[in-house]
């Protein structure tokens, strides 16, 4: 018994019946095309039988990205026929390729930006490349910027897009930059976060969660970073990530220099101690050359320590209390 022929007869009538599902359940191929070049899934979509369409994909393993004779997938027709946002999102969750556009050049992510922003974020999690899809209104973040007067987005909405790979230098149709838009929101901390994220490669931005970025956007944050490194509160993975941030080591050194002499002595000793988190931070390789106490920031720290010792010697001489040689040797070794 040729089940495919029987199913094809039904599909050629372009009318959905439960008999089609019965044949598929018995073993007929759910992906065959009728004489007009459409699959059963296409026909279900055309007739808005979404429950059956989802069932066909989930339970009978129909190819959700099957193309008709014109090269169009079911999702393409859903985009053109203004199907609900929920239906579009469910199709994508089931495996539909979101890199498809309707006749106006709009991809699913652009519709989600307009109608249900949370779906846009969920789509980016599943398909990170969606952040770069363009329409006649630009990239998703440019669409957000263009819509901001009729559909206001928060500074955090913009930041999460940048963290997921959107261009931080994006401009809207009037050439207004993203930084200008966030500055006008009177959100200085988000403006600082945008600038900080712009210095990180798109690949690593997602790893810089808000709590990590907070270490790097102001003096208080850098001081907190030093304190947390002293107390071993930061895991090795995050230490490495923070140390590779542009000029992070230099920022920490500047912070150390701003402290009183006693605090500097303690921190410098830890920085040059091989088993400390501070030393791990400064030992992270940033360029082509391995880190070494003879160059780079570790050399700076060593020089700072020596200068503190020299100052201590000079001060001691002025009060006729020069430290013993053995004491100085122990200090240098520490």
TrEMBL record:
The keyword Repeat applies. Keywords: ANK repeat, Repeat. This is Ankyrin repeat protein. SUPFAM superfamilies: Ankyrin repeat. InterPro entries: Ankyrin_rpt-contain_sf.
């Amino acid at each position: 018994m040729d089940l495919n022929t029987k199913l094809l007869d039904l599909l050629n009538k372009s009318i959905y019946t439960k008999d089609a599902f019965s044949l598929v359940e018995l073993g007929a191929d759910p992906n065959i095309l009728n004489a007009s070049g459409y699959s059963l899934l296409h026909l279900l979509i055309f007739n808005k039988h979404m429950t059956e369409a989802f069932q066909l994909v989930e339970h009978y393993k129909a190819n959700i990205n099957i193309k008709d004779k014109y090269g169009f997938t079911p999702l393409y027709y859903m985009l053109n026929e203004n199907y609900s946002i929920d239906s579009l999102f469910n199709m994508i969750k089931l495996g539909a390729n979101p890199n498809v556009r309707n006749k106006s050049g709009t991809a699913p992510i652009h519709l989600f930006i307009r109608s249900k922003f949370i779906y846009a974020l969920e789509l980016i999690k599943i398909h990170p490349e969606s952040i770069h899809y363009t329409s006649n209104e630009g990239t998703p973040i440019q669409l957000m910027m263009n819509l901001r007067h009729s559909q206001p987005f928060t500074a955090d909405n913009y930041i999460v897009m940048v963290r997921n790979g959107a261009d931080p230098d994006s401009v809207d149709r009037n050439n207004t930059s993203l930084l200008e838009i966030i500055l006008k929101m009177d959100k200085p901390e988000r403006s600082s976060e945008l600038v900080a994220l712009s210095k990180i490669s798109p690949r690593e931005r997602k790893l810089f969660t808000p709590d990590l970025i907070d270490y790097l956007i102001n003096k208080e944050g850098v001081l907190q970073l030093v304190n947390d490194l002293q107390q071993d509160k930061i895991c090795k993975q995050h230490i490495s990530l923070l140390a590779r941030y542009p000029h992070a080591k230099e920022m920490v050194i500047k912070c150390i220099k701003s402290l009183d002499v006693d605090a500097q002595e303690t921190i410098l000793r830890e920085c040059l101690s091989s088993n400390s988190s501070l030393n791990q931070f400064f030992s992270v390789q940033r360029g082509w050359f391995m880190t070494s106490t003879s160059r780079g920031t570790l050399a700076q720290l060593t020089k700072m320590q020596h200068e503190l010792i020299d100052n201590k010697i000079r001060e001691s001489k002025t009060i006729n209390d020069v430290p013993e040689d053995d004491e100085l040797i122990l200090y240098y070794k520490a």
